[in-house]
Write a structure and sequence with these properties.
3 helices; alpha+beta; single chain
Amino acid sequence: MRLRSIAFKWTVEVPLEGILPALGQIGLSPDRTKRHIWSRSIGDHQLLVEYRPNMSTKERSFFWLRWESSTGAVDPGGLDRILADWFFTTSQYAETTVNWLQAFIDQLDFRPLHGYKESSPKIWSKEEKGHHFSFYPVKDLYYFEVRNREVKKAIQHQKFSLWLDELKHNLLGYERPDDQISFDMVG
């Protein structure tokens, strides 16, 4: 499994002008050729933040945050800290919600995923702890998506690397990675 990119859809409860200082604070610079895109290079990776004006309103701004690499394969490990910084910083300015995770994956050999059901031809999905997981082919790659069952509610975005690890092990034919036994806190 090779990750081409990882993306998150975010909403911030302020108009674009209210969040611009946060973009600068975390080191994002406006793209000189494309409107509504800010970026930051980290090694051979790039963090892109794209404002979605057609989805946004006067009270709420929508963004796509993308993690890409010039090599064509992204390392999700480098995204953990940046994602935490982004969420913490934007949350200082307004209520911030992560609505959706989308990963683009090169996968040559596909095998049925443990715990997933084929909900329609070539679309595998499962529900787990309020999250809806989907895996399906699009042209020469696969999309892996995670969203809340109730689309406007947040996903637990900080678990993205766990979800990607579980998918990788699942595609290799294992149910779960041995080292990924997790306990949910009840309280």
